[in-house]
């Protein structure tokens, strides 16, 4: 299986045109891989005389919160998404309904078996003797990464609008959304956290527009990228070290005004910094990825990148459950202790091995199926499907799939079942490997 995958990747690498922006593919692979590594590293689970405990190392060892400035790289993924979807939309010759359906297929289908598994474990498991607490915790941990897909589907669906917004207002549109994000934070600090949820649009929309700017050639001059990094870095330090924002760019239990749920202007400043630094290296990195070896490796990783993302937390949750069942003493190390840190490479290696069977079994859902010919999907049907997917992903990310929240569970499962059936019956196309062409 692995040998065939490598041969297929090598063939694709040999056939890749020089015009393709291979660095964009690399950034996508790095971003998701960093998120996976961060999730595994931050998990602080242990067993003592009082039982099983689960926490975040960000709480146990506050100094680790600085690491989130490097490991919170979702801004890079939204940047690449804005870039690739702008390219895809500008080259697409069909209608908006078909275009959106095509992209929904790759985002939705890898999650169908995941949600199916946790519907069984989280909802039915306790009826057959599974500890309800473990079922609840496992479901919530495994499904929380879907928050990102809920927001990303929204950005994808709005691509024609964001492309038009960039074309008309350019940098003013980015500045306007950033200002709106800062204003939303102010209102949120004076009222309620729920006000801040509009920042899912302002923060991630601003980063998504920078992807359009990249596609439009704005960062062809590396000096502009360095300027963006400097502006973002200065703003980030002023807002955190010298201001009221929390240091951690990932949610920390007990912190009321965090930077991720909902996202804050400080997270946007981090995004500007990361994006500026990444794009300042574009020239030499594009030359590097003209080499067959690095480019083939990038293709291999990207061929299963969504499968890795949606299953990596399930692999961790089930691994912890198995350890608790077989040998709980293996989790006796106190999080943050010297031995705990020394054991992290082994811990990450175990979880990586545990994830491989899921990738091997379910990556076919990411690849999709080839359509027999052009389809004529209505704009309304695709928009309704996108809204349903956002609601589904948002629901399961917020509450998991447990018997404690039957209404939330239904809101998570039913829309996805209907959308999945619609995608299959509407002859969803093969995975487009030619997104970033510039």
- Cross-sheet strand order for the largest sheet: 1-2
Rg, alpha carbons: 22 Å
Q: Would you count the extended β strands for me? A: 2
Helix content: 55-70%
Tally the helices: 21
Sketch the topology as an H/E string, one letter per element.
HHEEHHHHHHHHHHHHHHHHHHH
- Strand-residue proportion: under 5%
Mean pLDDT: 87
Distance between the termini: 32 Å
Low-confidence stretches: 369-373, 428-438
Q: In terms of structural class, how would the helical and strand content be classed?
A: mainly alpha
Shape: globular
Structure description:
By secondary structure, this protein is mainly α. It has a domain at 78-157 and 304-433. The protein is 70% helix and 3% strand. The protein has 21 helices and two strands. A two-stranded antiparallel ribbon has the order 1-2. A hairpin with a 2-residue loop joins strand 1 and strand 2 (51-56). Helix 5 (74-91) crosses helix 12 (199-215), helix 11 packs antiparallel against helix 12 and helix 17 crosses helix 19.
């Amino acid at each position: 299986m692995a040998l065939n995958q490598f041969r297929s990747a090598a063939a694709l690498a040999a056939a890749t045109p020089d015009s393709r922006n291979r660095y964009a593919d690399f950034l996508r692979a790095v971003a998701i891989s960093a998120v996976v590594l961060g999730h595994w590293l931050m998990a602080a689970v242990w067993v003592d005389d009082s039982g099983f405990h689960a926490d975040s190392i960000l709480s146990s060892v506050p100094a680790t919160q600085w690491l989130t400035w490097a490991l919170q790289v979702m801004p890079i993924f939204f940047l690449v998404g804005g870039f690739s979807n702008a390219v895809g939309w500008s080259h697409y010759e069909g209608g908006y309904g078909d275009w959106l359906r095509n992209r929904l297929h790759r985002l939705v289908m890898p999650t169908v078996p995941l949600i199916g598994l946790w519907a069984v474990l989280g909802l039915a498991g306790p009826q057959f003797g599974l500890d309800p607490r473990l079922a609840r915790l496992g479901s919530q941990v495994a499904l929380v990464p879907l928050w990102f897909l809920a927001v990303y589907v929204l950005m994808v669906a709005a691509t024609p609008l964001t492309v038009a917004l960039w074309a008309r207002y350019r940098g003013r549109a980015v500045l306007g959304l950033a200002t709106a994000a800062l204003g939303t934070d102010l209102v949120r600090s004076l009222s309620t956290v729920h006000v801040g949820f509009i920042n899912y649009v302002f923060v991630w929309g601003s980063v998504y527009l920078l992807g359009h700017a990249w596609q439009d050639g704005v960062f062809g001059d590396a000096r502009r990228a360095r300027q963006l990094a400097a502006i973002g870095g200065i703003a980030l330090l002023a807002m955190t070290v010298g201001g009221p924002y929390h240091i951690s760019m990932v949610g920390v239990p007990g912190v009321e005004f965090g930077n991720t749920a909902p996202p804050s202007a400080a997270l946007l400043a981090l995004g500007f910094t990361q994006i500026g630094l990444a794009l300042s290296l574009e020239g030499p990195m594009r030359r590097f990825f003209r080499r067959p070896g690095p480019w083939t490796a990038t293709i291999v990783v990207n061929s299963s990148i969504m499968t890795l993302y949606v299953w990596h937390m399930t692999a961790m949750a089930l691994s912890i459950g198995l350890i608790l069942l077989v040998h709980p003493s293996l989790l006796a190390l106190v999080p943050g202790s010297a031995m705990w840190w020394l054991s992290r490479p082994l811990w990450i290696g175990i979880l990586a091995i545990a994830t491989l069977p899921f990738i091997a079994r379910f990556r076919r859902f990411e690849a999709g199926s080839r359509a027999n010919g052009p389809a004529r999907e209505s704009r309304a049907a695709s928009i309704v499907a996108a809204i349903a997917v956002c609601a589904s992903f948002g629901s399961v990310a917020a509450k998991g799939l447990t018997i404690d929240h039957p209404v939330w569970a239904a809101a998570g499962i039913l829309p996805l079942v209907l959308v999945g059936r619609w995608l299959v019956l509407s002859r969803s196309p093969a995975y487009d490997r030619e997104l970033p062409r510039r």
